[in-house]
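FIELD: query
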Amino acid sequence: MKLLDRAAELIASVNYSVTLRWVFYGLWQEGWFSDKKPTARASAKRRAYEDFTSLASRLRHSGEDFNSRWAFELADDRRDPIVRTTYFRNTAEWLAAAIEQLSCNIDKMTSQNNYVVVAFEAEAMQSQFKYYTESYGVSLWPFSGAASIPYKKRLAREIDYLNERFGLPVIILYFGDYDPKGLEIPETAFRHVRKWCNCEFEAYRAGLNIDQIDKYNIIDDPEKPGRYQWEAIGDRAAKEIITGALEKILCHETILKTERDEEAMTLKAREALGALR
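FIELD: result
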């Protein structure tokens, strides 16, 4: 019960959805599984991870009364229902909602020296990247492991379009696991993207890197010792890595000016649309 209480506190401590693996890493670093011992079949960390996932599964399949104390939700960014209605009962409701939802949206990269895009390996951490990049206005491209050929071709077309539309050099900041596969994924992906792209672009691995592993004392994968996953990074470290990489390239002050222009235009547009009532 104390373990689950602490898990709920970790989940509540951040403003985005997290995965079960992310919660485990936080608990492991705090020493919650120090009683686990290695066996011939598995390391202590893997035994702890298997026990914790089993416990979490039983919890989420349990009755509502048992769940009320730990009513936390975990990220699942890969399953979305397809809904084909907006639920408005009449035109008046639609207009009221349209006025409320209307918001001017100007591309924040137009005021920059480069057009910056963020790509990342761990699709399950999409909520984290959405949260910490929101104020910068950058587009996100989750790879979900090794990206498919259609996805890479789509990214190539996007880069061509951005370069032509805005006349800016395109820079992609990549964030992924630090293990053989995690290092191979961006190298292969961007090599393929360059084949299908008609313009030059730059791609940098902004994390996870060996110096960040040492700096933030990140622990290795419980199932694969010596390999490091993005989900093992604590919230503070993840924020510093993501925003630090963006701050090196983007001017935040010009982004704020664009946002002020957006707010002024949004107000004018809402007033004009309100005259249709």
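FIELD: remark
The first strand starts at residue 115 and ends at 120.
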